[in-house]
Structure formats: structure tokens, C-alpha cells
Amino acid sequence: MIHKAIIAGFGGQGILMMGVTLANAAMREDKQVTYLPTYGAEVRGGTANCTVSVGDEEIASPIASNPDYLVVMNAPSLHKFQSILRKGGHCLVNTSLVHEKSIRQDVKVYEIAASEMAEELGDLRAANMIVLGSFLKISSMVKPETVLEIVDETFRRKSPEVMERNKEALWAGYRFFE
Amino acid sequence: MKKNEKVLLRGSEAIGEAALRAGCRCYFGYPITPQNELPEYMARRMAELPGTVFLQSESELAGINMVYGASATGTRVMTSSSSPGVSLMQEGISYLAACEFPSVIVNIVRGGPGLGNIAPAQSDYFQATRGGGHGDYRCIVLAPAYLQEAVDLTYRAFDLADEYRIPVILIGDGMMGQMMEPVVLPEFRKDLPAKEWAITGAGKGPSRFVRSLLLDVHVEEAHNWKLYRKYQRIERREPQSESYATEDADMVVVAYGTAARIAKGAVRRLRDKGMKVGLFRPITLWPFPSKAVARLAESVGKFLVFEMSMGQMVEDVKLALNGKAEVELYGRPGGVVVTPVELSRILSRRYNAMQHEA
Description:
- The structure holds two protein chains of two kinds.
- By secondary structure, chain A is α/β, with parallel strands linked by helices.
- Chain A has one domain (2-176): 3-Layer(aba) Sandwich (Pyruvate-ferredoxin Oxidoreductase, domain 3), CATH 3.40.920.10.
- Chain A has helices at residues 15-28, 75-81, 114-121, 127-139, 144-156, 160-176, and strands spanning 2-10, 32-37, 47-55, 69-72, 90-94, 108-112.
- Chain A has a six-stranded mixed sheet with strand order 2-3-1-4-5-6, with helices on both faces.
- In chain A, helix 3 (114-121) crosses helix 6 (160-176) and helix 4 (127-139) crosses helix 6.
- The mean pLDDT of chain A is 93.
- Chain B is of the alpha/beta class.
- Chain B has two domains: 6-193 and 209-237, 3-Layer(aba) Sandwich (Rossmann fold); 241-357, Rossmann fold (3-Layer(aba) Sandwich).
- Chain B is 42% helix and 19% strand.
- Chain B is built from 13 helices and 14 strands.
- In chain B, helix 1 packs parallel to helix 7 (147-164), helix 3 (60-72) runs parallel beside helix 5 (90-99) and helix 11 packs across helix 12 (313-321).
- Chain A binds chain B through residues 20, 23-24, 27, 33-37, 39-41, 60-66, and chain B through 6, 8, 34, 118-120, 174-175, 178-182, 261-262, 264-268, 337, 339-342.
């Protein structure tokens, strides 16, 4: 079984960081994994998205024709990707920046005001970690403990404070859908 | 990094690290998108590795001639570029081939012709497999589809280059350069054998000559025959390919690199629907795995070549099959990357048409 997720938003929202963290966690759990970022003349403030595929068999194509999961961090991403989400798929929406509803009636939508939650936690930049936490709860693609390990390794060298804040954000997003 | 430990690497990093572990001591190149992450990685890593040289040349022309110089001394050397940059290097590659200087050239192909764009494409197939520069020569051309394969083939490229004294081209695209997959890296090569032909300035023993100017036609002819025999040897020994779900297939898709991964996804979808479709993936583009594809034609009546260019590899498939089976082309040029679902629709239409005719 292979599951594919597209994560999309603004450049600078930490979209690719979410994808790489997820991919690293999947590798740590000995799963098959591919990570594919968009490739273009990308700039800060432009659109950014990546596709992460995780499974227990060889992943032929790193491209998702009909992803099982869609994570949208801003409105243009919803417009761009909602039509390709597979029937019965899962759509996780950051309602802080997306004020409209998905036109799809045949998918399950999860809403979280991640930017507001991040501000309450004291760091707007942690919104991506909140959403990643929620994604882990919804998808069961990898264990949250594994992602915490990766976050630990990624941020420890940078600053223990940033690491703790990211972990806190991850759990907050995870618990939101409990 | 522990031994045999999996690491998640970007394609460009995987190629760079594998090259260094293969004993690459010099890198020369000029920036161009979509391969800049590779020289960036080499610049960073080579600063940590004693006895290595990283140099950003002033042009592609300078870069390839620096490769020529380093190779002449017997040093393992590489350069990388993308389509328009590799075009600029063709004169130098011809000289490398003439002098039989081992070298590794990475081409992260982009949409063309001309400046084109920076999206994934496969339109440099002819340039890579037909020599590319002037004169009667070939380069070994390796086309990985998976990052582990990119690591293994990069590592092998340096051995092939030395063994046959030939330029080896590793061909990929922006998708492969940017994507990440877990890979296991090989050990650092140590104690590479000395090259008895290399020009080291030792000042001892008889003089060594390496040159490409051979004014005497008989000397030039003899040299061409020598190269030709070498190319024949490579054609006998080195073709590599992967066959997937071809055992009972009625139709086989032929694709390499990124296109092959998309095709594999499409083939899986068709298999789930009960269609007998398989995939043949050349790993070496030159030497082309002609015998392996011809063998498939004993049981397969139709081959569909899917390439991200408008009919280049299809010529090699036709030459290999020599009329034994029907060959059709589905090309997507210009840097467009189709999804497996889109391709599966095309394939199923052609499959159904074939069944209908039968």
C-alpha cells in the first residue's frame, strides 16, 4: 500500500520543511518513501508545494496523480489541488488563511486555524508544525514519536528553545483532532 | 554516517557524494539551472576533503578543458551542467574521446532547444548517445531512474571511464536532481591503480604522448579502428536494462529515467485493470540494450516508446527490433511531466486499439 500527500502553501511557510520532516520520519520507520518538491523559479511569497509518498512497496512514480491527502496552507493551493484529490481522500485546511470551503463533496475536510494557534503559542512560524501534527493524526502515515525524533535532530543544533516550541506545536496540532 | 546506513538525500547531493566516494578529486563547472545544487554540494564537501580541487570555471568551455587537463594527469575528474551548457562542452568532449581521457560528465537535462526552460526533459538523447561533438566517437551514457541507482551508477561511471578510457555521461533531469529518496552510500575508494598512460611530469622513464592531432591519415585510421574496437567491446559487455511485468505482456512500454518511473506507475494501474502491459527500461542509453529488447519481441507484438522528447530513443528501439514488432511513439516534449494517470489513459487507449485490431 502506498499513500501520497501533497502539501501546498506560500513560499516561506515551511511547506518543504514539512515534507522533508515527514520523509525523514518515514525513512526512520524503514518505509519506502519519495519526496518531490515543485521545481521552478520559486521565490519567497510565491507558491510552494511538495509531494510525499510513503508505503511498504516500491514507489514507482514520485508524482501523485490523485493524492490521498491534501494539506492546504493558503487559498491558491486549495484552488490548484482540490480537483485532483482522490474520491474519499482527506483535505486538511489552514482556515487562518483559507476562508472558503472546498467545492468537493466527496472528500473529508479537516479545518484548523493553525496561524492563530501558532500565535497563541508565541511563534507564528510554527504554524507548519501544528498542521504537520494534525496531518499525522489524520493520516497515520508515520508515528508522531518518529517525527519528534527528527524535529529534535533538526533543531537541536539550531536552538533548544526553537526545538521545544516546534515539538509543542506538533503536539498541539496532533491533539486538535483527537 | 554509519556504514550501510540509509540517508535521505536530494538527487544532486546523491550524485555528488557518490562521485567523491568513487575517488573524484577534481570538479570543474559553470553554474546553470537546474543543476546548481550539484556544484554547490561539491563546493561545500570538497572544502572538507583534503587533496581535492573545486573550481567554478569562467565558462563551460573552460570547465570541460580543465576536465581534459586533470584527466591527462590520471586524476578522477567530473563536471556537470544542463543542456545548453553541455552543448558548449561538445568540442571538449570530442577531444576527451580522441585522447581517450576518462571523465564523467553529468547532464541534468532541461527543456529545449535553445535556452528552453528549466523543467525536466529528455531531449538531449541524440546528443548524448551519438557522440555529440565532431568526429567518430561514442560516450557511455548512463540513465538512472532511482536515486539509489544514481548513486550506484555515478560510482560505477568512474570505473567505466578508467577501464575503457572514455568519457561517461550521466543523464538526469531537474526532477531527479530535486527529489529526495533514501540511499545507502558506498565506501570511499582508496588506492586506485596508477594509469600507465597518464602525464604526471615525473621526469623519469620514456616520454608519454597523448594528442588528438594525427595528420597522417593512416595513423588516424588506425586510431579510429582502435576506438571502434573499444566501442564494440563496450556494446558487447555493458548494456544494462530493467524489465518489469514483461513475462506475459502483449504490449511493452519503453522508457528511461524519470519517464520510466511515470511509466511504471502507469503500468501498475493498467495491470490492476487486467491489461497485460509491461515496461522495458534502458539503464545504459549507449550502449543501448538492443539484444534485451529484441528478445522481448519474440513474445511481444507491440512496443510503445514513451520519452520526454519527440522521437529520439524510438530510433534505437526500431533499430534493435529491426521490423520484428510494431513500434509507436508517445512523446511529451518541452518540459511537461505527465502524471501516471494521464499516461495510463494513453496506454490503455493504445492497448485497447491493439486488442481490437487483433
